[in-house]
Amino acid sequence: MGIGKRIAADRSRAGTFGIIGRRKTAKSPVGHASQAVLSSDEKIQSDPKGNLRVESHEIRGGRLLKRVLRQDGKRLATDFGTAPKRGTTPAELHALADQRYLQTQDLPEAPTGRASVAIADLFSGLGALTLGAMEAARVVGVHGKLVLAADNEPAPLEVLRKTLAVGELEAREIDLATALRPTSGKRTKAETDLIGRYPEDLDILVAGPPVKAIHV
Asked: Alpha helix (H) ranges present in 125-188?
């Protein structure tokens, strides 16, 4: 069943991207994003000023690749499908790779058996910030694990659960305006219930509060 039927009241926020709710889209040049770790002796590009490029978007062999430099000197290349015939500036390739990432039906394969990072996302909505944190972790060889996504709107949370295959324990409907109300400094029960008793276990906290409604 498409998510449009499940959350018709929030169709505009549900979106039409592939991994966002796994909703079927029009045929895309890429069904899924594949990856490969390149050897450390490969020539690494620099920008016009001679600065090392940590991330680059390039066309190689007729394919659109995103290449990220790791700390071990190797580059991770993610294949985003057939290269475009037009719009081949670095900025245009970057935008196209981002678009195709969202249009894939499956997330790129995450590292297994390695270090992991715990991610919490407040005012999560559909989970776009979580996807960004998980993708950043993936390209440096770390597994990103969502331990908490909180929002007060059920429809976007349902999309997030479908996208990231998590349940109501991780993706919670919470009134964050109440849970994060300023106090004298002592941790409140609402904060403990939200973050957990051991917030130091969190590695990454992202948040996108509505500016006019609440300030954290």
From this structure: 128-139, 154-164, 176-179
